[in-house]
């Protein structure tokens, strides 16, 4: 890839400077070795160490040639301003940003083009003075899927899911929902997205008790994988009641099931578990429900983590004993609102402006550090997905 800042060949430089320029423009990974052999050697080195060596090695870790490391992604909107000239947060698309843990930089991702069927999302409405209108999204099969939101007219804003693939850095549209909705339960398990309950353009018992699922399929298109737009939402067994339509609910994928509670926060609640394969609903285990006192997530759909938002305690669910063990207590975890897990890390965003707390739950003892949020933005959701494959660091087709 040509660098537009390179000088003309007629310009002369000292020998050391010429060597640096030559190294930057040279795509060989290890001089004297074919790139496929050099790649095997370099793959033994931690990716964080490769970043600072040379441009060729940096290009390698951001290419499709090696498995991608995981990155933190946020959905956010500009913080509310008090001045008369401040831009309204209504009728905006949330901004998707990616935090690269190796370069420690935030990357802003272009918003998807707005087709005629997509309504502008609204975060505030005079009818709901004390709360934001939720935007609901899930991580599934390495993709981010936007599923539900509210327009300024208080109708569902997303009749089609919006899907972002980090490796192709591209947006696509999923199949249309049979009933677009908002304030619903959304979750994903093993490549299947589930939407349950909620409210359509107006409240009905039929929508409030309905359940739909969509199995994501990937197809090849112009040498890139994308979501199959011809997939369909399948209607599943209805809920017994409409208790899940009162809040925007995160259904946590866990061992082929989706676990959820009907209200948020540290308060009395009911818990539900949905088996995606058998299409059966059962009550949540008593021990699991008793410790579900804040936002919850799962690590690779195997281990559930929750933050007790009143006490500021991160906990892990023990399936064999049906109880919770405390991992870490920190006052900065109080008021936790959003959580995501992946790669041995649990990330938490709280209501206070303390940044995003990252806990390495694999370390002994667990370690905590803070990642600053995108400047001037308020977090709406957290996700952990594969890192982006930046065009700047794409390897040649022959590699």
From TrEMBL:
Residues 1-14 have a biased composition (Polar residues). It comes from the Eukaryota. It comes from Lactuca sativa. Residues 1-25 are annotated as: Disordered. This is F-box domain-containing protein. InterPro entries: Kelch-typ_b-propeller (IPR015915).
